[in-house]
Design goal:
Helix 3 runs antiparallel to helix 4. The chain is 38% helix and 17% strand. It contains 7 helices and 7 strands, in the order ααβααββββαββαα.
């Protein structure tokens, strides 16, 4: 078989491509959906950068000799200095620790009665016949007496104070008739506070004091606000005199 020499310098004719049995399908560009791993990785990276950029604050808790936390007081007294009502019953060598009013639940029923009384009086006056002027006057007089009594209860609650010092616990109250009850801390043999379900919700309780003597001026003091915090302050003043948080507040105010 004789091979032919192809002429040089001339364009060679293009050879047809051999036919393919199964031509490939048309190419389609498909962008895969993000599975979330890369996004979560980027978000995690951003969170790491945020954590690195934000300062880290480390808080340490310190305790005193009594085992209580040193820091802000558990309960704020009503005044750092004794009020005029209480100050007259304190002697010079006695260190004042705080005074507190009774919880507002003590006068809640009288306050509610005074708030609802105008509606009740209006209903009674409307139900009475116009000819019964005497009955209307009696109703109005009773209503005024009720308002005076409610006002008296509110003022009595305002002047009623529970007082704690480094030597004794006192209850001072009364507007026209002054009542002062006291018990030395050295005679307190047992102390507890009781909370009803409503007291736990509204944060009030009843203090029960027991002393060595049979006759005592104070046994139940109710209802006092923040009984848990006040119990801690009471115990701290009994077992660690001079280290109460109320004294720290007074020293800070003096500085």
């Amino acid at each position: 078989m004789v091979e032919r020499d192809e002429p040089e310098g001339e364009d060679r004719p293009a050879r047809p491509a051999p036919p393919r049995e199964n031509p490939p399908p048309a190419s389609v560009s498909v962008t895969p959906a993000d599975s979330g791993h890369e996004g979560s990785h980027d978000q995690g990276h951003d969170r790491d950068q945020t954590r690195q950029s934000s300062p880290v604050t480390v808080t340490t808790t310190t305790y005193d000799d009594a085992g209580l936390i040193v820091g802000p007081p558990h309960i704020q007294p009503t005044k750092t200095q004794p009020s005029r009502i209480v100050g007259r019953y304190l002697f010079d060598s006695e260190r004042y620790c705080g005074e507190w009013r009774r919880h507002w639940i003590y006068v809640a029923r009288w306050t509610l009665l005074g708030a609802l009384s105008p509606f009740l009086v209006g209903y009674l006056v409307g139900a009475i016949n116009d000819n019964s002027n005497a009955i209307v006057k009696v109703v109005l007089v009773l209503w005024i007496a009720l308002l005076v009594f409610v006002g008296y209860k509110l003022m009595d609650w305002y002047y009623d104070r529970f007082v704690l010092t480094d030597k004794r616990v006192m209850v001072v109250g009364g507007i026209f008739t002054r009542r002062v009850g006291m018990m030395p801390l050295a005679r307190v043999t047992d102390m507890a506070y009781l909370q009803s379900p409503l007291g736990r919700i509204l944060n009030y309780g009843t203090f029960v004091l027991e002393s060595a003597g049979q006759d005592q001026a104070l046994r139940e003091i109710k209802p006092l606000p923040h009984p848990g915090e006040l119990y801690l302050l009471f115990c701290q003043e009994m077992y660690e005199p001079g280290s109460s948080t109320a004294q720290q507040i007074e020293d800070a105010a003096g500085d």
